[in-house]
Amino acid sequence: MVSLGFRRDFWAAARSYGIIDLPQVNVPREFTSCSDEDVRKQAADAVEDIIKSLATRVRLQPEKIVTPLETPQPPAGCPAALPVSANVIEFRASRYEEAYDEFNRRFLDWGLGDGFPLVPPTREKVDWMLTGTHHSPEEVVAEIDPAMGRATVEKIAINAVMAGAQPEYLPVILGAVEAIVDPRFELMKCAMSTGPYTPFLWVNGPVVNEIGVNYGRGCLGPGAQSKVNIAIGRALRLIMMNIGGAYVGIGDLDTIGSAHKFSMVVAENEQESPWAPYHVDKGFKAEESTVTALCVVGQTEIHALDSNTPEELLFTYVHTICGIGDGSGMFGSPLSTDPAEDSFRRSMGPTRYGHEPVLLLPPSAAQTFAAAGWTKNDIRAYLFENAWITKGLWMEHPKFKLDEGRNMAAKWRDAPLDAKIPIVLFPEAYQILVVGGPANKMSYCPVGGSCAAVTKSVDNWR
Amino acid sequence: MQEVTLAILNPVATIEIAGVKPAERIGDLSNKRIGFLWNRKARGDVALRTIGEVLKARFSGLECNWFEMQTSIALVPEQIESLRQLRNDVIISATGD
What we know:
The structure holds 2 protein chains of 2 kinds.
Chain A: E1 2-3, H1 7-16, E2 26-27, H2 36-55, E3 64-68, E4 88-93, H3 96-109, H4 123-130, E5 140-144, E6 149-152, H5 153-162, H6 170-180, H7 187-192, E7 198-204, H8 207-211, H9 227-242, E8 265-267, H10 278-281, E9 290-296, E10 300-303, H11 310-321, H12 327-332, H13 343-346, E11 358-361, H14 363-371, H15 376-386, E12 388-390, H16 391-396, H17 398-403, E13 420-422, E14 431-434, E15 441-445, E16 454-457
Parallel strand pairs in A: 1-2, 7-8, 11-14
Antiparallel strand pairs in A: 5-6, 7-9, 9-16, 10-15, 11-15, 12-13
Helix pairs in contact in A: 4-5, 5-9, 6-9
Chain B: E1 4-9, E2 14-18, E3 33-38, H1 44-58, E4 63-68, H2 77-86, E5 90-93
Parallel strand pairs in B: 3-4, 3-5
């Protein structure tokens, strides 16, 4: 039973799991936005079709299914269909500029781009991109959710060319793919959500200066100083689309969308950080290069221009992140999650904190903490102590009202309504990065539910 | 006039997966066991319970079992085993928010 807006998602998902043409029964509207009465009516109206579909023969599937991804429908009037099975797609014209324009027009029609002009991935360009890694073009890096498309090094390189990347960025892109397919990242949720979930990448180590990933002023924004950041993030989005099948309406069911989905990449400002770099905290050596991926749902400014003590800096952060409307807080809340009783999270491994919000500190703010003798763990401890929401306020949230408290972790069931529930499970959940230019403007990136930050080596992909 | 050809490598991946043998179809639901699988998204339970009520009124001997997923995106191995042990003839679930 599938609401109409998710039909193609259903078919694409069934195909990815080995069933072509799985019968579905459609209802007009998604249940989450209906009244109970409308839900009952929709469901009752669907019963006849459900009974018929239970008797409808599903054709026998071949032993092995090899098929291109489900791609978007071109608009009405598009003169050509995407030759999905072709290894090479040709565009002919009397002049190169016309062929280039035709390529961009068709790729946009076929839904294979992000809306910005693409660099044509010719054989020559892709071979050039492949000089960025010693890995074989045929090597399968991953099968990428939600469509489980096979991400060979070459397919990744093709999309990297389209994004405007250079060969020296390719190891970072390959490392990013490795990170997002790690189960702890929860790519299925990140790619498919009806919310604006997107991978946020940060880079550490010597590769930052080798290739010029921006860690200073405007590192999450447009401009020449961030051209490396933008190309890497753009490549990842194109990979998620053309290899993972995260096309809007098929594998990406985002309701409103987000500009962060075009590209969201920074490097840590290791030079101006008073602390050890992020990747060193994660067990890598300083001279190793890494890329970390975390599924986030946006970015909010933490205005702290008037603050020059640690407590003042964190006051605004605490009162920003303690919002029960924050989707990440709601789903990742310790009110409903207890690793002791949550076998799903336990199955992900011992370090699955889940809900790992990000605090981006500009160097000046980091220096304020360090001058007062604070480490990153001191910041985390302070946040864990002070960033909480009362059980009573949580219980007012429609999600908990609807569930009648069934979702609550056992340890909170008998707690009083004024019990203070920290918004993360452990202090270590807070991800702290030093980035940006001068000024005391911090940033907070809420995280996509229970997703965790995953760090992978870039050097392995050189 | 000379023609220019711009030859592009296809960026779209293929899927290679083992085909799934579909379960036998059920013609008549009388005396059958139906499992309702709720992903804990709001009001999915209302929809599934409504369907259960209509089917029970229509088909004699119909047994309905209720199952809630721990998360909205995946079944963990213990849940898959629990579902299997219930030995339902049919599973009905809802998706798409």
